[in-house]
Every structure is written in C-alpha cells, then in structure tokens.
C-alpha cells in the first residue's frame, strides 16, 4: 500500500510541481508527517523532490522530471476501462480521444491489470436510456463543450417546452450536465441562471466575447439548486390507493414512474383473501396520478387526498363531455 501511495504522491507532484503538505495529506488520506516521510523516501530513491519551510513553502518536484510509469492497480484499470459513460463521451465528441487514451494506458499499465479490465467489458453493460424514452439527438453538444471549456459566450436558437417557435438567446455558459442520459446546458441569461435542454437547441454560434457569469459557485451546487427548484414546482402529493389484486403488476410499473424522490410504495396486504391492497406513496404530479385513476377505475381507487378525488371526478366528466355517447 505504501508503494501505491508513493506513486500517487509522485503523480500529484508531477501534475502540480509544488503543493502544501496539508493538501497532499488530504488527497492521500494520511497525516502530514506521513507525507514528509514519503517525500524522504522518494528523495532516497533518486526522485528530485524536496521540501521548503515557511510561508509559501511545501513539497516540490524539480522542473523537467517526468515519469511514464502508470502504477495502475487492477482495480484502477478496471475503473478506467469499464467507465460507464462512453456513450456520453461519444456525444461530447470525445469518443476517439477516450479510445486513444485507453490505448496509451494499456501500453504502460501492467498486463495483468489490463487483461482483467478488458474482461470486465464483457460482463458489465451500462444502459443510460430510460424506459419508453427515445434517445435524444444532441449534434451541437461538441460545440457547447468547446464553448464551456474555452470560456466563450454563446448565441443560440432555443425552443422551450412551452414555446411554439424558437427564440434567440445570448448566454454565458457555466457547464454541461448529463442527467439520466439527457444533456443540459447550464448558463446565465440576463444574469439569471437557467438550464437549457441541448436537444431543443437548434443552432449555436460561439462568440469571441468571454463568458462572464456572475454566479461563480461550483457547477454541482448550481445544478442541485436548479433540480430543487424544478422539484418544488411539481408539488409532490401523498396519495393512498386501493389496488385490485389482478392489477398490481401493471399499476406498480405506472406508479413507480411517478414516485417522488426519497419516497417508495408502502403496501398493506388485503384485509381478506382476494381483496385489494392499500398503497401509500408520494407522487410527483397529481394530474398524472388522477389520469391513471380514471383509466383504471374501478380496479384502482384513490382514498386520499380529497382534492385528488375531486380532480378525478372533474377529469372523468370532461372526458365524457369530450367523447359523448
């Protein structure tokens, strides 16, 4: 384990050249004293490293020194070769670069580690598609990636979910998010942070002007806030249902698609043999649950809340009025 840690330390120094012992200790999950001892070990092995005391000091690797040794463990090689987002890499326009990088790693990594990593590809499959959803075309994603990495503003045509025709927006990109196989551009438009579904972007022009978003928080923090904001708009509702035994299978599949985050279907068994099950679940959209209740009545009955029962009655009346006879 110490050999792996020494290699990790060397790789960190090769990348940064100079780093605080406290930061290295955090990355390696050891104490600062251990880092200093490891620096002595590297120096004794002929690696040109040294430590500097005082403010601005730290652990230093002399300029010009590089090593091509990968030091990959079998588990690390598997993590790289079985990376589950290769489809995402292709969509970003980096599929060829990933294949090339893996080939270079395979040329320097231990043969046993590479063999085990490649065998993992035959027994692990990552399918990022959601059920009943068609794959989205995102041909403009590579251009957006270059704009984000290059820190450039973007002028784009975009058709929102509620619009009938595309509009033009000039935005300051912050990042790109792959959420359940759907890509989103996170950007500021008129100083407001928004998310734009990449499949709805019709055209992109990367401008020479630099991207200068006001919000400088990490992308992960911004995205979590956008997710929470969207979830709040859906207004999850706690529902109690009676479900007929012969409809349990199909109803479970439909209801699970609407289960709110952090919730699950709680089932009480029938009071008598052959009777209905009682389900308690929090759903994301009351309208969808009401539609399911109309379609599957009387095999499913909504007991609570009363507001959803009223919603179901109204939906049924509107349907009968729309389809008379």
From TrEMBL:
Alphabetically sorted, this entry's keywords are: Transcription, Transcription regulation
Give the matching Pfam families: HTH_11, WCX, WYL
UniProt domain HTH deoR-type: residue ranges: 2-60
Q: Which SUPFAM superfamilies match?
A: Winged helix' DNA-binding domain
Task: Name any one GO molecular function.
Answer: DNA-binding transcription factor activity
Cited InterPro entries: CBASS_pafABC_assoc_protein, DeoR_HTH, HTH_11, PafC-like, WCX_dom, WH-like_DNA-bd_sf, WH_DNA-bd_sf, WYL_dom
Q: Which residues cross the membrane?
A: none
Q: How is this protein named in the record?
A: HTH domain protein
